[in-house]
UniProtKB/TrEMBL annotation:
InterPro entries: DUF305_CopM-like (IPR005183), Ferritin-like (IPR012347)
Keywords attached to this entry: Signal
Keyword Ligase appears in the UniProt entry: no
Residues annotated as domain DUF305: 58-204
Name listed for the protein in its UniProt record: DUF305 domain-containing protein
Signal peptide, first to last residue: 1-23
Length: 207
């Protein structure tokens, strides 16, 4: 009887130890699973759209639109101080307020994409001459020489042509671009500048 009791106690102890060992291993496994889940939750966020995949159309759009915007800013700066029409002055200010941040945004994209940015001061990059709506040096000299109402007319005419060129470039990006953020900006540019073209045409008609 005593031997049976001892044997039972030993078997019971072995069973208890086995259960404890199994529980410990299970706890380690669950802890590992919990760590894995936590690691997934705490993973670094996805890269911003500016760093997402881009194609040649995106790069060309950003590079060319920067240069295009820079020329528009030169024209707007003239109009802010020399236009005699108050509505034209307001449009010039609106152009400046919209396009300066857009230049900064597109410059940031090109940096993220590892691509060269357009040269400062509105100079074209190699192979970028003859952009849609781009004013020639003669056009810019003519605008600078104009005064009074004649300046207003020249500014309105040139900016309409300039905007139409930007709209054409934006539509190309919409259809050929691969970067979602660049395509979204192209849509914004096309929408805003289409509205400004309509306003500029109304001003030109009454001047």
């Amino acid at each position: 009887m005593k031997r049976t009791t001892v044997r039972g106690a030993v078997l019971g102890a072995i069973a208890t130890a086995t259960l404890l060992l199994t529980a410990a291993c299970g706890g380690d496994d669950m802890a590992g699973m919990g760590h894995g889940s936590g690691a997934t939750t705490g993973a670094a966020p996805s890269a911003p759209a500016s760093g997402a995949a881009s194609n040649n159309a995106d790069v060309q759009f950003a590079q060319m639109m920067i240069v295009h915007h820079q020329q528009a800013l030169e024209m707007a700066a003239m109009a802010e101080t020399r236009a005699s029409d108050a509505e034209l002055k307001k449009i010039a200010t609106d152009i400046k307020n919209a396009q300066e941040p857009e230049i900064q945004k597109m410059t940031g994209w090109l940096t993220a994409w590892g691509q060269p940015t357009a040269a400062a001061g509105g100079h074209n990059m190699p192979g970028m001459t003859g952009m849609p709506g781009e004013m020639s040096e003669e056009d810019m000299a003519k605008l600078e020489a104009a005064k009074g109402v004649e300046f207003d007319r020249e500014f309105a005419r040139m900016m309409i042509a300039h905007h139409n060129g930007a709209i054409e470039m934006a539509r190309t990006e919409e259809s050929q671009g691969g970067n979602a953020e660049a395509k979204a900006l192209a849509t914004e540019i096309a929408t805003a500048q289409t509205a400004e073209v309509a306003t500029l045409q109304k001003i030109l008609d009454r001047l």
